[in-house]
Amino acid sequence: MTKRILIVGGGYVGLYTALKLQRKLRGPLKRGEYKITVVEPESYMTYQPFLPEAAAGNLEPRHVVVPLRKVLKRCEVITGRVTGIEQAAKTATVQVTATEFREISYEVLVVAVGSISRTLPIPGLAEHGVGFKTVEEAILLRNQVLGHLDRAAATLDPEERRRSLTFVVVGGGFAGVEALAEMEDMTKDALKLYPELTDKPRWVMVEATEKILPEVGPELGVYTVERLRERGIEVYLNTRLESAEKCHIVLSNGESFDAATLVWTAGVKPHPLLQKTDLPLDDKGRLKATAELTVEGHPLVFAAGDNAAVPDLTKPGEFTAPNAQHAVRQASTLAGNVHAALHGKGLKPYKHAYAGSVASLGLHKGVAQIYGVKLRGLPAWLMHRTYHLSRVPTFNRKVRVALDWTLALFFRRDLVALGALQHPYEEFELATGQRKAS
Ligand SMILES: Cc1cc2nc3c(=O)[nH]c(=O)nc-3n(C[C@H](O)[C@H](O)[C@H](O)COP(=O)(O)OP(=O)(O)OC[C@H]3O[C@@H](n4cnc5c(N)ncnc54)[C@H](O)[C@@H]3O)c2cc1C
């Protein structure tokens, strides 16, 4: 009988695990001894480090995602959402439509659902905030920012203009700093098309701790704050968002103002699906993983990436940080260990010393710290692009991304707001006089 390897989640860990396993198990898959099933709500994997560039129009959003069916030709891909896992019965429940649920049984399980934005019960945040983890959010944000420039240029009301031109990003990690820096760069470019706009856009970064970009170390974190402030961006450290009701921003440092755009990137937490399993979790809600990337007490259940507490063998007592560098490398070890477990061989522990980080601060600007070497400005930005180009999965995506960047050398970025994408039925509803049934 065919044994199923079920991979829950088609992000970094899920995709890279499936890619390696379909290569390693080529023969057994052909003979029908095994089947690899990947369940993912989207039909693609998102290369998240490119989201800021997609939001800023330097990259075409479709080029920062990898279509799963195209690259996982020897796997079964189910577009759906796992809603529960019962390891005791070795079954997972998958929601494939609003009303249809499928039970899928498995022999080997890989849990790779990553994390979700960590939010706080701040008044107005749920109504007015947007996260920055998906390509849909990146597209929305780009349309929103450019749409607000159009609105600010059109309105005669100075208060509305100020509100439209005020953009707030909460959270000074990778996602927040890169998103803010790239989009501020984009608005500077865009303003050349709005000669009637004499008010300058106001960009505000709010960070609850005393530093931003902890991934590149304190020195480069301070450098980043200085560069952002030089660009006129307000950076508030040791400051929290207290309220955002009716788009009125109140900060813990006493500042308050209206802002039409609020981006929330203040950290992540393990995916809530993990609570709907009978697998062991740690106090932060992550799967308790061993160094071999199995889940404690379950030799044929594997976990890695943002949803797992993986012991960091290079720093005893600590766990590996939730980032792409670990996720990709863990996926490789994990796939090797699944293969070894199926063939009765010993499993290898995951051990990787963090190599450092690169971050873009807009066109031709960046910071990087690789193996202790610190880079700033253009060299860091080039390092950022080279590193991520080498990392984005598949040759096809590498070529498309490289072409986008090459085209940008000759043509200015596209600065059109396709805000109507959020309301695609509006035109036809106007024609028919009826609201579309959803
Ligand atoms: C904007 C941004 C920029 C970043 N930049 C960097 C960077 O420069 N360097 C770096 O090292 N890290 C970076 N990161 C972090 C990095 O992207 C994550 O650490 C990495 O994606 C974790 O991989 P993962 O496989 O654990 O989770 P993910 O890649 O998030 O994959 C999880 C997958 O599970 C799917 N899923 C969710 N729920 C279900 C369900 N119920 N059933 C089935 N599937 C489900 C999701 O759709 C997703 O595809 C960045 C993150 C963001 C958001």
Keywords summarizing the entry:
single chain, about 450 residues, alpha/beta, 6-stranded mixed sheet, 13 helices, about 35% helix, about 25% strand, globular, binds flavin-adenine dinucleotide
What's the SSE blueprint?
Blueprint: E1 3-8, H1 12-24, H2 26-30, E2 34-40, E3 44-46, H3 51-55, E4 65-67, H4 68-71, E5 76-79, E6 81-86, E7 91-95, E8 101-105, E9 108-111, E10 115-117, H5 125-128, E11 129-130, H6 135-154, H7 158-164, E12 166-170, H8 174-191, E13 202-206, H9 218-230, E14 234-236, E15 241-243, E16 248-251, E17 256-258, E18 261-264, E19 268-270, E20 287-288, E21 294-295, E22 298-303, E23 308-309, H10 324-342, E24 356-360, E25 366-370, E26 373-376, H11 377-391, H12 395-410, H13 426-432
Parallel strand pairs: 1-2, 1-9, 2-5, 9-22, 11-18, 12-13, 12-18, 13-14, 20-23
Antiparallel strand pairs: 3-4, 6-7, 7-8, 10-19, 15-16, 16-17, 21-22, 24-25, 25-26
Helix pairs in contact: 1-10, 6-7, 6-8
Bound molecules: flavin-adenine dinucleotide.
Condensed summary:
Strand 25 (366-370) and strand 26 (373-376) form a beta hairpin.
Description:
The protein has helices spanning 12-24, 26-30, 51-55, 68-71, 125-128, 135-154, 158-164, 174-191, 218-230, 324-342, 377-391, 395-410, 426-432, and strands at residues 3-8, 34-40, 44-46, 65-67, 76-79, 81-86, 91-95, 101-105, 108-111, 115-117, 129-130, 166-170, 202-206, 234-236, 241-243, 248-251, 256-258, 261-264, 268-270, 287-288, 294-295, 298-303, 308-309, 356-360, 366-370, 373-376. The chain has 438 residues and is α/β, with parallel strands linked by helices. The strands form 8 sheets. The protein has a 6-stranded mixed sheet with strand order 5-2-1-9-22-21. A 5-stranded parallel sheet has the order 11-18-12-13-14. The chain has a 3-stranded antiparallel sheet with strand order 6-7-8, with no helix packed on it. A hairpin with a 4-residue loop joins strand 6 (81-86) and strand 7. The longest helix is centred in the first third of the chain and has 20 residues, at 135-154. The two termini are 42 Å apart. The model has no long low-confidence stretch (mean pLDDT 93). The structure holds flavin-adenine dinucleotide (FAD). Residues 8-14, 39-42, 48-49, 51, 81-82, 112-114, 132-133, 174-175, 271, 273, 305-307, 322-325, 327 line the site of flavin-adenine dinucleotide.
